[in-house]
Amino acid sequence: MKTLQKTLIALAAGSLLSVGAQAAVSYGNGYTGQPYVGAKVGQFDLDVDGADDPTAYGVYAGYNFDPNFGIEAEYVGSDDADYRGGDLDAKTYGAYGTYRYQFPNTALYAKGKLGVAKTEVEGDYTVGTVRVSDSTSDTGIAGGVGLGYMVNPNMSIEGEYAMMDSDVDAKLLTVGAHLKF
């Protein structure tokens, strides 16, 4: 496992442990920080000529320090998409700062996130009669915007559009749900 992957995993694990330890911390304004976990599904749009867009699926966890600001870590993978008579798949690992704006007198909110993400794309295809395996991996700035709906105080659903800027630019359109605890 490469150093960056180990670092991202360590940061995510540390964040989750920190979230659990701070779950009952009051910030003096009547708001107690709130951890959450969720799952999402959607579609990648990869900057790879001739490749179908793979279906994306992922998990994420975060912590809201107050009603507006928080942190989030996520992993999103894909199924195998058709590519030159073979397969192509993608993965992203990301860590973000988040901002939520609650629309007045509604259960709707807007969400923005900005951070870093590692994007990995692997292809296995045929050129003539030769089978080729190729992969690329890079880390870059990532961000996204979305809309959410609070089903109840402990559950929300979100639609999100995210972009990862790296050697292989990836865009991601997802819908997901998360539980707060």
UniProtKB/TrEMBL annotation:
KW Nucleotide-binding (keyword) present: no
Record's keyword terms, sorted: Signal
InterPro entries in UniProt: Beta-barrel_OMP, OMP/PagP_B-barrel
Pfam families: OMP_b-brl
Signal peptide: 1-23
Start and end residues of each Outer membrane protein beta-barrel domain: 10-181
Domain of life: Bacteria
UniProt name for this protein: Porin family protein
Species per Swiss-Prot/TrEMBL record: Psychrobacter glacincola
